[in-house]
Amino acid sequence: MAPDAGGRLVGGRWTLHTPLRRAQRGLTWRATDRDGRPYAVEELRLAAGAGPGPGERGQGERWERVAAEVRAAAALDHSGLIRL
After folding, report:
1. What is the DSSP code string of 2-13?
2. pLDDT (tens digit, 9 = 90+) per residue, 64-82?
3. Phi and psi for 25 in degrees, rounded to 5?
4. CB distance 44 to 24 below 8 Å
5. Pair 29, 18: CB distance under 8 Å
6. Cβ(71)–Cβ(39) under 8 Å?
7. Distance separating alpha carbons of residues 42 and 26, to the nearest angstrom
8. How far apart are alpha carbons 4 and 72 in whole angstroms?
């Protein structure tokens, strides 16, 4: 599918087409880049009003899980992965 064949453009480069996997904290999308190459793009979602500060009970835990996932992703090194 061509990258401009519908979907939402993110980062000025990737077009999100259809969800591949739904998880508690977000979605993994089937995506293409500007050149039409296929990718999987993970979109993290937090509850409305979530923040790293001392907000509602459990919000700090959610941010810590997201931070742990980001640290794990940052540690990956493979030619098939894109660093953001």
Report:
1. -TTSSSEEETTT
2. 887 888 888 888 888 877 7
3. -105, 10
4. no
5. yes
6. no
7. 7
8. 31
